[in-house]
Design a protein that fits this description.
Helix content: over 70%
Strand content: under 5%
Structural class: mainly alpha
Order of helices and strands: HHHHHHHHHHH
Shape: globular
Amino acid sequence: MFGAFAAIGFAGGLSVGGMVAATFNWRWIFGMNPPIIGLVLIPGIISIPADPPSGRPSLPVGTACWLTLTLLLFSFAVHESAALGWMVLPCLLAAIGSGIWLLRFDRRQEQPFFQRGIYPSPVAVKGLIAFSLLGFSFLSFIAIATLALYEVMAWKVQSAGLLLFPYSIGSALVSRWVLPRLFKKIGVTGTGLVALVCLLAGTVLLGAGIYTHRLPWYLVALLLVNSIAIAIGYPALTVLSLTGVAPDKQGIAAGLQSSIYTIGSGIGLSVMGLCLQAFSHPVVDISLLCACGIVALGSGLAVQQLLTTRRTG
């Protein structure tokens, strides 16, 4: 249920955010969040019972800040590599070195930030890799589709957001009616594979729409990705990533899943931005097609991870 609703939120939030930005201005993308958070937070405080004290130490804030700065440095280096020139190398080396040093430091702590043994099953690890690649590919796909509708098809941003919205409703319907049947018929891994193949096919069709300037390719691509792939892929990979996780560690595992998806999404957008800058061309289609190739590569790697999971499972 959590995965299904999260998928609906990812699909719907992008289209609503685009319409809000186009109707008002980009600041309202941030301004609309506090009232929504308040509406969710107040019932949550009232209805969710408090957990008893666990006796565990508090979150190591220093380690969390260190990790955040490392990821920011890495994303900055990837996204701004075209502008940084050769200076991108020391930035990347600094980010990688910081990450390695962080892991070594954390292993020496009595209560490490990165606890071992959370994901004991190889299937769960492969599911996490596929999950991060889903984040890498999905958000980049939506960004490319929106940009292509604006740049190639000469649509207004508001019109592009309106086009995405019905597909978000379709995502809710797929999560409600199709997802349970797929789980029963082909299992969790099979459902994840169907989702990632839809994502790969949708990316190829989006490339066809960019190349031919024909709207039907866009429509089918958005149906495959925004209505089907995310609606069944996010829940399936969520369940797959929890394979073998002990009940008392499932909360930590779910939190890590969410973080890994977000990190994958951020890196995907950074790489897409790099691709658009590095392959900038008077004909905008060329850079968009290159970005589609990066997204197709990410979704193809995710398919490969699940195929190896099925063979070993």
